[in-house]
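Researcher: Here's the sequence for the chain we discussed earlier.
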Amino acid sequence: MINAMKKVTALAATALTTETLLSCAASSAQVRPGPVVPHPWDKRVHCNATDPDGRHIVTRFGTSDFGWYHFTNRHNIHKCSTLAAANHGNAGRDNHHGRLEYDGVAFETGPRPRQVKFTVIVQYTRKTTDGLYDAGRGQKIGVINAFRRNQSNNKCPAWMHP
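Model: Thanks. This is the structure I predict for it:
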């Protein structure tokens, strides 16, 4: 009987040791993270325009921080034609490091015509100034923001979108 108990104890100890070794091996062989994408963003182009200096200006979908996803939600601009109206004029401000600012005017016709002045900011370089986003070889970041100045939240009126 004592021999049987020793055999059971030895088998149990062997099973426990084997289980421990296997669980350690499994945990160390578990998910090995691949390269981390620090800031995924949507590089697809939503709008195109060309300014008088021949610069091809794109508007990418971007992120909630910049691009189409940013200013459509935050600043209420929902038409490519609104951006193109500003980009068809000369850049009003140029910091000579790729940041261009275009001023535009949107009109509402009808019995009570109205107009709104707005600004479109373009990053005309391959990468953002902080270096976190890259449009790819031969590409430009494009429109990073569009908004109405001097208004609450720099938001454009509802009539500027369909």
